[in-house]
Amino acid sequence: MSKTIRKTIRFSADEFAKIEEMINQHNLTFAEFARGAILRKKIKTNLTKDMLYEINRIGNNLNQIARKVNSGSDRKNLLIQLIQIQKELEAIRDVC
């Protein structure tokens, strides 16, 4: 499909910094990112090594918590750890 229509848009410095960060995280061009956001398409991304590392770290945390639950450890500390994992997963979900 030929793309012949051109539009101009202005951003504040803070807005554009956020956009550039997301573009770099997802390894996209500005045009790909803008079309995906404007057309409300899901932005496809490749998992980076950093993302895979974070996911692996969360999996290790879950394994440690499962061991503690099975051994009857302190439930308060377990809940705190679960809340932290939930926050990390939400952060990853927001990036993807």
Characteristic terms for this protein:
mainly alpha; 0% strand; 96 residues; 2 domains
Quote the beta fraction. Answer: under 5%
> Mind describing the biggest β-sheet?
none
Helix and strand composition category: mainly alpha
Order of helices and strands: HHHH
Distance between the termini: 27 Å
Summarize this entry quickly.
This protein is an all-alpha fold.
Describe the structure.
The chain folds into 2 domains: 37 residues, no CATH class; 47 residues. Helix content is 70%, strand content 0%. It contains 4 helices and no strands. The two termini are 27 Å apart.
Topology:
Blueprint lengths: L12 H14 L3 H9 L10 H23 L3 H21 L1
